[in-house]
Amino acid sequence: MNFITNIWNHPKTSAAGLLIAVVCIAGVLSQQGITLGKAGTGTVVSLASALATALLGLLAKDPGAASQQVSKSASQQAKFGAWMLIALLIPLPWMQGCTGTSVAQDIVNWTPALQSAVATVDSTAALLAPADAPIFSTATSGFDAASNLLVAQAKAYLANPSAGVLAQLQTQIVTLQQQVNAALLQAAKIVDAASQAHALAVIQAVGTIASAILALVESISSKAAVAHMAAQSSVKLSMVRPYLDEERAAGLVAVHYGETVELARVQVAQAEQAEIRAGF
Questions:
Q1: Helix, strand, coil percentages, rounded to 5, for the chain
Q2: Dihedral pair phi/psi, residue 10, rounded to 5°
Q3: Ramachandran region, residue 90 (left: φ > 0; alpha: ψ -120 to 50; beta: rest)
């Protein structure tokens, strides 16, 4: 009967565990194509997952015990908080309800950061060793045109979220992502250690934003469209993975969304895994 005693003595932790289980099970069911019926524009499974996540959020804001009990429960609350972060921030690709317009706005919101990152790339060659600058310049020569076209298409899709404009956006984000991946492979060949580190860092900044936009585009694309996008990706994420700095990527995402690096780190890791599973 210990488990009943534990539930009685720790109702908040027990409720959190149950809600986390609901979110996890809903994810598995959705990945298997099990919907349990429709609920508005989504499914019963996605609704259950959304409700569980919302309740987890409410629990996370619960002030908990009285002030005299805070020190005693600090360790338990810290562990609870860690689970809350994981449950609330892991991207849930099986959940529905996000509109094309809201995603399009999110994509457009990334474009100033993208343009700034590309501008940094443009000024980096002058900071590298003379022998390394040409390698870097050649590797990143297509960034300006590709990013400018992506920005224009993102704004066009926000203004007119049609299938035709989405198809153009899908093509362009893959184009930029492939240019970034290829540039990372070329920058890795730079011999001078300082030049290589600098080159990889500025290219990755563009790549992190491209990956964020790619994930957003995937979220509003059909499975067939995502499969087609992945088929156009010859330089896979797994090939450039050794040259990526997860902390740097998490920091950029954290600043953009105004969240902690810990939260962003979970999002970045999950996004990477999702892209690899999709074939990128």
A1: 80, 0, 20
A2: -130, 65
A3: beta
How many whole angstroms separate alpha carbon 274 and alpha carbon 280?
Answer: 9
237 residue type, one letter: L
Q: What is the CA radius of gyration of the chain?
A: 22
Q: Tokens in use for 115?
A: 């343009």
- Element containing residue 150 per DSSP (H, E): helix 143-159
pLDDT tens column, 119-165:
999 999 999 999 999 999 999 999 999 999 999 999 999 999 999 99
**Secondary structure class of 43 (helix, strand, coil):** strand
Hunting for tokens 């809903």 — which residue is that? 26
Residue type at 25 in one-letter notation: I
Give residue 8's pLDDT band: very low, low, confident or very high (50, 70, 90): low
Question: Could you give the CA distance from residue 208 to residue 279 in angstroms, rounded to a whole number?
Answer: 17
- Mean pLDDT on 186-202: 96
Cβ neighbors of 90 (< 8 A, separation 6 or more) are 266, 267, 270
Alpha-carbon gap, residue 246 to 248, rounded angstroms? 5
Spatial distance between the Cα atoms of 172 and 151, rounded to a whole number of angstroms:
10
3-class secondary structure, 35: coil
- Give the residue from 20, 33, 26 showing the smallest Cα distance to 47: 26
> Would you say 56 and 88 are in contact if contact means Cβ atoms under 8 Å apart?
yes
Q: Do the Cβ atoms of 161 and 101 come closer than 8 Å?
A: yes
Contact 158, 105 (CB under 8 A): yes
The CA distance from 73 to 67, in Å, is: 10
What stretches of 199-241 adopt beta strand conformation (E)?
none
- Contacts of residue 108, defined as CB under 8 A and 6 or more positions apart, other chains included, come to 154, 155, 158
Residue with tokens 């399009």: 104
**With contact defined as beta carbons under 8 Å apart, do 123 and 74 qualify?**
no
